[in-house]
Amino acid sequence: MDSVDRQLVKALRSNGRASYAELGRLVGLSGPSVQERVRRLEDRGVVTGYHADVNAHALGLGVTALIGILLSDSTSHDEITHLLEEVRQIEDCWFIAGDDSFMVKVRAGDMDGLSEIIGRLQRIPGVARTRTTIVLSTTWEGRPIELDEPVQQ
Fold this sequence. Notes:
Elements: H1 3-14, H2 20-27, H3 31-43, E1 63-71, H4 77-85, E2 90-95, E3 102-108, H5 111-122, E4 127-134
Antiparallel strand pairs: 1-3, 1-4, 2-3
């Protein structure tokens, strides 16, 4: 990735709906040149999709929690991954190192809803234990990382 690609990624993270002409003005290229660069970024898996940021509270999902999931010794990562995909309230899922095997981020309308989600997770075969942390407030979420220049070696 060169500096133009990094500028394009930054611009797309800021406004995924920007036109190729707009992006071209930002990076000093023509619209068709930008379109080709963005297509290459997509093909290489740098840009993996476009989405709308949605306010969870406005959707009635006022409770956010992070839930650590510890697996029993005989359970495989792949088995649990498939079963976790079926829990629609899971927004993010990470396979992690540490005390837990997975960390999931869930959203619920209220504490009763959160309790139902936790119960569902605990009933998944192979889940030994869950540990829940309730988010009191969100300082930031989905913050774009800064793309520094590559280190020259």
